[in-house]
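cron nightly-structures :: item 1 of 1
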Amino acid sequence: MAGWELVGYTTATEVASGNLTLGTTMNGRAIATGQLAIACIAYRSNAAFTLPAGWTLIEQENSGNTTVATTASIASGLMAYCIWNTGTPPGLTFTRTGGDVARGNIVFYSGNHATPFDVSESVTLATASTLGTLPAITTSQADELIVLLSINADNINTNYAYMESDTATRSYNVWGFASPTLSWKNFIKRFDSLTTTGADVGFAVLEMVKTSAGSTGDFRFSTGNFRNVFIAAAFKRVAPTALMEVAKLARFDVLTPSRSGIAVERFSRYDILQASGLPSPQPRRQQSFTRYHPTPPVAPSAFTIGQWSVADYEDDGEVRVTVTELPYPGRSVITDIEYRVDGGTWTSADLAVPGIFNIDGLTNAVEVDIEIRAINAVGASATSDVKAVTPTDGKHRYWRIHVTANQSGNITAFNEIEMYEEQFGINVIAGGTVSADTTFDANHPASDAVDYSLAETGTATTHSVWASTNTAMPHWLKYDFGVGVTRNIKSIGIHNRTTASLAQSPGTFTIQWSDDNSAWTTKWTETAIVWTILDYRRFSDPTYDAPTYALSPHGSHAYWRFVGRSGQAITTIALAEMEMRATPSGADQCSGGTATASTTLSTNVASNAFDNNNATYWAHNSATEANYAWLKYAFAAPVEVAEIKIRARADAATSAPTYFSIQYSDDDTVWTTAWNVEASTGWVVSEERLFTDPNYPIEPITDITLSSETVPEGETLVGTLDTVGGASVTFSLV
């Protein structure tokens, strides 16, 4: 629209904590006095920024945190503005005390009013969502510039934004400076900028020109599944003049219909002036023609040092490249990023926006040089700077859970811990030695946290739980895999305790490794974890790219067991029947194997739970182990288990299980937790319940079979849905 144009934006700067100084290295044209400068800063934690001299705050949302748990992550951010003065520029250092990662830049526009700011709005989402809403703003004039700042609580791109009242305003792609002209039809996303330090954030700036005064309607954003921050601000343009109205008429009534052509014919100045009702200096109708020659695109600029990084991925000859910002695209959209190793062949990274990609197949402990370049329709950019990196296998002898805060109090306790080299791998805790910084007493040794038992009380004096002393934090539990044995731990599992000991659950902790049992390195951090009783949580390295699973992620195993931790109303745990299924709604596999249990009560033996007789049942002996029992099935050959069915006793439901885990083993010694069930209450006699592994992927539908093509009014259509896993589900439509 008349009066507005993007001048450019500065290369983003980043800090791990403390003050953030914004740069002035431009992507676009030169900065000039009188231009509208908008500072955009995204950060984590609730340590608010104070603005330097010369800036006016528009909005700041600072209720963020530093957790890396997906749906619990909360972003913070601010937007400020000034009218730039090259003679006396504003300060560039935004100050705060402490805090976590922060990243920001400055976006410049021309065509603004001398006092441009009109109205703004901001919000921090109350709950995590991939589709966020920002309340509407009401502009006071026509042709106001609307600038949106979208901040993700992780290094994730913003997909798009639009005004809910007009979905045609939805933004598409990343335009950078390729099209400095602003749109009056839809939002333009200029860039995504991502951090690679601390809890991480990602932010995007989008803008459009609203042609009429009034309400925008609510804004909608498609983002990552976090508690994100959104800010909107409206700015007034310079007061229109007669010549600007003439230019507006010429551009939109004459140029727009043919902008993509090789040449565009314009009317003479006389015709334009007459059309807009203005006097002409020459009252004669002499038509003249000029040609419009758009500036042709060129190859992108090269990546600068600060726009990308590379680091060891610590996974057997693999490194990770992080692109935080794209270079100048050369007036054409960047369609790919390529990389090469040690000056070799260029390879596509399958990435065209800021993000991450891995390079594998390298040799451990051998340094390599990595370069990248950007590709558009014209060709490749110049080669980036060279960055050296040495891949490793990420394997280490010593691993520990280092707890700095509990749910409350100073006693840290684990009922059981597990360690895995894959997200859903086998528990690798075996054959080594466990130790802790302290132990509460002789009944709570460190070894109880790795004994494959979830018992809260084994006998009257011995617990299957490790607990620290009631002394100042931190506390830690360490596992030494032994001489010559190293592991690359990507995920851990923790079972906590019951009601009286819930406060002893770890709230903030790090997973650390060491090669010498002296110098420790943090692999990843978990913060502000909130537990429920008899809970099981699996925590994975957030940088780990877990594989995609078509069926059960746990694979096939010879031994599967149910581990009960609480009965519904009494300390005995019992059930009439149990089925173990390879797929949801599949057939029972418990046939031809052997059933055993930790204990039995009288004649209520383990095999009763698998005899297909609802009148019999298995019950454990609570006099030996109250509120804890396991029921195991040894299969003739390894099987997958994605779902179990439990039937309560026909004569009483008080012993039906309310808290339990499903575990598997390959040797009947080392056990791995597949999933946990909590607070399954309200059982009645003979009731059957299904419990499906929450990690089991949703099976794609491969075929739909209908009983007929038409359905008479008032009748029911019956059919089946066949899935890739082989399940066949009947449905009906009325």
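cron nightly-structures :: done
The chain is about 5% helix and 40% strand.
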